[in-house]
Amino acid sequence: MLYRTVPKTGDKLSILGFGCMRFPSKSGRVDEERAIRQIRLAIDSGVNYLDTAPAYHFGKSEQILGKALRDGYREKVRIATKLPHWEVRDASDMDRILTRQLATLGTDRIDYYLLHSMTGESWKKMRDLGVLAFLDRAKKDGRIIHAGFSFHGKLPDFKEIVDAYDWQFCQIQYNFLDENNQAGTEGLRYAAEKNLAVMVMEPLRGGNLAGPVPDEIKKIWDEAPEKRSPAEWGLRWVWDHPEVTVVLSGMNDEANIDENIRAADSALPGSLSPDDRARIDRVRDTYKRLMKVGCTGCGYCMPCPFGVDIPGCFALYNARHLFPKDRSTKFHYFGRHGGLIGDVSYAGLCRQCGKCAKACPQHLPIPQLLKDVKSEMEGGMTVIVPVLKGGLWCMNRVAKVRAFFLGGKTRD
User: Fold this and answer.
1) SS3 for 82?
2) Given the DSSP bridges, would you call strands 78-83 and 29-30 parallel, antiparallel or unpaired?
3) Where are the domains of the chain?
4) In angstroms, rounded to a whole number, what is the distance separating the alpha carbons of residues 123 and 139?
5) 15-43 pLDDT, tens per residue?
6) Domain 3-290 superfamily per CATH
7) Are residues 320 and 377 in contact, defined by beta-carbon separation less than 8 angstroms?
């Protein structure tokens, strides 16, 4: 495992950080035992920076991380968690939230504490409520060690926040599709020039830059003399920047954890060749041509008050365009969102309230995009789904009758 140094503190952090936003699931819930095993596997392999937040998994993320860091693991790592600005109404809320987080994580200190998801608007709110004085107090009494912020806004606001306080670090979205989005490359360099450590989130665009990839993208990667997975190419592109301190990966599969750790053993800044960088440029241009929605699947837009599974709808909408040879995408959409399996959650349920667009870190015009999804993905759904449901009901009844006559009456 390679490590990079936090400029203002001398802290040596693993270049691969464990993002606790996308734990594995089982039967619709977080698979807690597996998540704990994965966290400990990463720590045993050299990862020493773990990033969570109260909003992740609706509060479960901090709880699970706290359990994973028992049995001596706490002293091996640096914990990063965040102050959710949307829960703060007055200055006293900041202390209340931090006290709760310390108890949930089972620790007496937060090593890296961030103001969560800053934009120009949320920064002004927190600044006016006295957040800088709160950070000073919390650092002085040892409840937090280093202060920073995560960012999902516009570049001028990013620079304003960087200049407003003696931050030790910041966290930005950065990948080869987002060089000019949000803080972007200019913001990365601006923060580094101010001696801030820069932690990178969404290095693979919520997994969209990892496998499976469209045929056009796969062909470009396969032409490379050195064989790497799409995920490794994406991570190495971020690590190639010397201004980056830690790259966060939402690892929820053991094979992916092993692969990322192997890559983190050799991903030095500047290690990509000119041919490597040219290849990534070609992949970037191809993705931008093929993708319809720049959704990362972060879930900040959820829950929808009208029941739309916004990230799920966008994922299948993108898949229809990224994988045009796959004729099953629309039927998957019917199954997952049309009520064939579970509750209805299709795009057509949207009532254009705009709540999702205000919450979106990517600043996507979600209501309009959901109209596009409805137009392309939902034709025939009101006819086909009832037919399929009827077919499934008949199959189920036939199975029960067969079971009865073969000697084992089943319960309805």
Assistant:
1) strand
2) unpaired
3) 3-290, 310-392
4) 20
5) 999 999 999 999 889 999 999 999 999 99
6) NADP-dependent oxidoreductase domain (3.20.20.100)
7) yes
